[in-house]
Amino acid sequence: MDWWMEKPFRMIQNNLRDIDAEMDADEEVRWLLSFGANVVQLGCGGITAFTPTKQPFQRKSPYLQGDKFGELLEKCHQNGIRVIARFDVSKVHEDYLTTDPDWFSRTREGKPIRYNDTAATCINGPYQQELAVRIIEDIIRKYPVDGIFFNMFGYQTRDYDGNYVGICQCENCRRRFHSFSGMELPTEENPEDPVFRKYLDFRKFTVRDMLQKIRKTVKEINPGIAVSTYSPYEIDIIRDESNSAVDRPYPFWIYSASDNTSIVRGTYPDKVSSNVAINAVDIPYRFMGVSKYLTKLRLLQNMANGSNLDWCIIGAFPDYPDRENYESVREVFHFHRQHEELFAKLKSEAEVLLVRSGCQAEYRGLFRILKEAHLLFDVASADEEERIAEILDRYRVVIIPGADEFRSEKLRAALLHTKAAVVSTGSSFSEDSELLRKLFGLRLGKRIEPVRGSYLLTKPKEIFRSFPKRNWVYLDREAYEVESEEGMLILPLVRAAMYGPPERCFGHEVSEVGMAMLHKRKNLYLPWLLGSLYYYHGYEDHKEIFLDLLRYLCPDLQKIRVEAPPCVEFFCDRIDDRRFLLQFLNLSGFNGTTMTAPLPIRDIRVDFPENIHAERLTEEGLIEAGGESSTLSVELPDMYAAYLCILSS
User: Fold this and answer.
1) Boundary-marking domain end, from 553, 580, 615
2) Average of per-residue pLDDT values in the chain
3) How far does the chain reach from its first CA to its final CA, in angstroms?
4) Claim to verify: residue 471 and residue 546 sit in the same structural domain
5) How many alpha carbons fall within 13 Å on the CB side of residue 236?
6) pTM of the model
7) Is residue 543 assigned to a domain?
8) Phi, psi angles (nearest 5°) of residue 503
9) 539, 642, 636: which is closest to 588 by C-alpha?
10) Ramachandran angles phi, psi of 289, nearest 5°
11) Would you place residue 404 in the very low, low, confident or very high pLDDT band (cuts 50, 70, 90)?
């Protein structure tokens, strides 16, 4: 078995600066060992080489004496630490603009994209297509690396300041796109433009072609070298980031690490996720870390999802000016090291599949609803339609938020024949009237105008049991009427009336338009943005509408029941036939923008369908957590608790 598939690893990434070519290799290893890391990712080549390369298209660090990468690699291996070589071929020194102008991306005006003393290279130019592969090949022939990672791979349309630089207009892109499509290269990102849509296909094709070329090069030399970047195609270790940015719009996505790791786990069982907890506040503020509690939570979410631990700082440890997060990282890494054999064997117990589609807010709102309700679920990417088709029958409920259409006939057929209940929100399949009719027994009607000022009538009450006293719940954003002769239309629309001065606020009418469609008491369709409303506004009414409908479809969904506050994130995974692992994360320290120390949470109750024996995981090992019982009482004094549960029978 490949080393990256054996069990989750604990990786630290030191993003090396030119000046770090003078770092003390022995001290670096001592720091790594103190954290409990068993993998390190280190700068090797691309923008700057940390090896004594003689290639004319590589620039060594001006601070390099000898072979810093080779020295670090040797000493890490001597101490049982694997090394992943990091490359960034997205830029090179601007001097090459004079000698090799065809390497570079170009703006609409034909100008290179400069940043400091570098300029951006193009994926379709000879530097990335040929020379970058030679750089990688040269390294893996000379050094016994355990993996390679390449940063900022593919098509970049913004610079480091976030400035939009547009679609690359270099001659290599023009020529290759014309050969691919017979069309002229588009200059604007317009989803309505068929040329731009063809360009998106071109980007996917060229990225995959390049990844295939890199993988072939690496694996022919040494199949035991892991290939990693921010893509699932031809990759062994799928990289992602849980990061922060000072200008990023709210709401802050507190489930970032769980999201990034669970989608790899649910979609690509032949690969592993390495979601890096970025220490920095933002790219311009790399030398200050986020809250130590946020870093800890991101690492714990990685661990709880059975993924690798991954943390990154810029530069070397001794001169990094913010050590606030060091102890939090050590704590999680050491705990993981103590129980790594358990974390290597986790198998999902989820009965719900959530498909991540293009509507981010709709997806995230439903993700949050399921988390707060402590319902176990797997995640699959809508980009992998063929894979989704093969796994539908593993689940009792499949949730599809805001998907315009599915192109795969295999998936469309699987949805029609699956035993699982299919639930869709956000006016999905607006481009696929046939699937709407066959799957949900309806036709999408006219858009509701105006939506603002409209309400949902929470009837029938035998379904909407969470609303004994609240009859109206507000409706907002995009919504449609549906027409059906087969299904059960419920949740009537209360049409908007006058508003303004209180004296004029009347005239609402309960319509015959149902805002939820139950088809054969199996499939459910919501022609409005329930997930988005909960993601942006957070009113529990929208969450409870969704949960009431789920309970009606599947009254006995999930064998293990949890009574805990919504701020507790719950995980349950099977280890073998008799053992499974329960994990709890305490998110009470999050107030929407700030992550602080969590408050103690007591009296969490877990009910099992049969008796179990429980042991609590600690950094020292396992300790007894009570005798045989079908109920487990859990206390969460800190951010994390985990229990190994063993079936009595």
Assistant:
1) 553
2) 95
3) 33
4) yes
5) 21
6) 0.96
7) yes
8) -65, -20
9) 636
10) -90, 160
11) confident
For every residue of 339-403, which 3-state class applies, written as one string?
A: CHHHHCCCEECCCEEEEECCCHHHHHHHHHHHHHCCCCEEEEECCCHHHHHHHHHHCCEEEEECC
Q: Which amino acid is at 110?
A: G
Interval 361-395: pLDDT, tens: 999 999 999 999 999 999 999 999 999 999 999 99
pLDDT beyond 90 at 647: yes
Phi then psi for residue 40, to 5 deg, are -130, 145
At 612, which CATH number? 2.60.40.1180
> Is position 599 within any domain?
yes
523 shares a domain with 421: yes
Tokens of 397: 């409920």
For residue range 417-426, list pLDDT tens digits in order.
Answer: 999 999 999 9
Q: What average pLDDT does range 195-214 have in this prediction?
A: 96
C-alpha closest to that of 458 among 368, 544, 520: 544
The mean pLDDT of 70-76, rounded to a whole number, is: 98
Q: Give the separation between CA 84 and CA 405, rounded to whole angstroms.
A: 39
pLDDT of residue 255 exceeding 80, the answer is: yes
Residue 459 in domain: yes
- Please compute the mean of the pLDDT values over residues 645-649 and round it to a whole number: 88
Give the DSSP H or E segment for 483.
strand 480-483
SS (H, E, C) 472-516: EEEECCCEEEEECCCCEEEEEEEECCCCCCHHHCCCCEEEEEEEE
* pLDDT for the residue 626: 77
The reply to whether 366 and 492 lie within a common domain is: yes
Tokens of 302: 């990685």
Q: What is the largest CA-CA distance in the chain?
A: 83
Mean pLDDT calculated for residue range 211-217: 96
Question: How many angstroms separate the CA atoms of 41 and 9, rounded?
Answer: 12
What are 591-626's pLDDT values in tens digits? 999 999 999 999 999 999 999 999 999 999 999 997
- Residues 604 and 584: beta-carbon distance below 8 Å: yes
**CATH number of the domain residue 489 falls in:** 3.40.50.880
Rounded CA gap, 592 and 542, in Å?
Answer: 19
Confidence at residue 488, expressed as pLDDT on a 0 to 100 scale: 87
Indicate whether 479 and 596 sit together in one domain: no
459 and 540 in a common domain: yes
| 515 and 617 part of one domain | no
Q: What is the CA radius of gyration of the chain?
A: 27
Q: 17 to each of 14, 23, 65, how far by Cα in Å?
A: 9, 10, 15
Tally of structural domains, the chain: 2
Three-state helix/strand/coil letters over 122-163: CCCCHHHHHHHHHHHHHHHHHCCCCEEEECCCCCCCECCCCC
Q: Which amino acid, one-letter code, is at 493?
A: L
Band (pLDDT 50/70/90 cuts) for residue 163 is: confident
Instruction: Look up the domain containing 591 and give its range.
Output: 561-647
| 478 plus 539 within the same structural domain | yes
| Domain finish residue from 486, 519, 553 | 553
Element (H, E) at 172: helix 171-181
Structure confidence at residue 486 as a pLDDT band (50, 70, 90): confident
CB 111 within 8 A of CB 101: no
Contact by Cβ (8 Å): 380, 263: yes
Residue 444 lies in a domain: yes
d(CA 308, CA 274): 5
> Quick one: tokens of 502?
């209180």
Neighbours of 580 (CB within 10 A): 21
Q: What would the two tokens of residue 374 be?
A: 């402590």
528 and 610 in one domain? no
